[in-house]
Amino acid sequence: MRIAVTGHRDLHGTTMIDVDTALRMLLAEFEGDGPVTGLTCLDDGADQAFAKAVLDFGGTIEVIVPAADYRKSLAESNLLEYDRLLAEAVDVRELDYAEAGPEARTTAAMAMLETAEHLFAVWDGGPVHTAGGTADVVEAAKQRGLPVTVVWPDGGERG
């Protein structure tokens, strides 16, 4: 099963713990369907939590790096984890963008959806804040007919 992830970057504290737990519970439900390949950009927050969970469940990850300067766009506190997860990826594809702006991130998300069989969306259900954000990726997945599972804990907060 090839599962892509999209989600908010600004998750902390109990919200991050609850999201991690929910992702692991979902992955446990997919265990009977064979090995899971997680498709991710390894962004801060939801992406990295998803990648760690996939690896912990014995799956593999494939990474799409949106731009040459992508690593610089991540929170400094997440760089070591980004590097570790990137090193564990079975496939890394870097897109031909110099800067990790909205266009690069949107293109990366759409590239994940091209080969995904399911999308996990760590999303509070809110509207688009930036082009290529979680809401846009969810809408694109639905238009492609991909099953979408939204993960958002009761009382979850961003910021």
Task: Write a brief structural summary.
This protein is of the alpha/beta class. The protein has helices spanning 13-30, 46-56, 79-88, 102-115, 134-143; strands spanning 2-7, 37-40, 60-65, 91-94, 118-122, 148-151.
Mean pLDDT value:
93
The CATH topology is: Rossmann fold
Write the CATH architecture name: 3-Layer(aba) Sandwich
pLDDT < 50 runs, ≥5 residues: none
Largest sheet: 6 strands, parallel
SSE pattern:
EHEHEHEHEHE
Instruction: Report how far apart the termini are.
Output: 32 Å
Strand % is: 15-25%
Q: How many domains in all? A: 1
Task: Please give a handful of descriptors for the protein shown.
alpha/beta; 6 strands; Rossmann fold
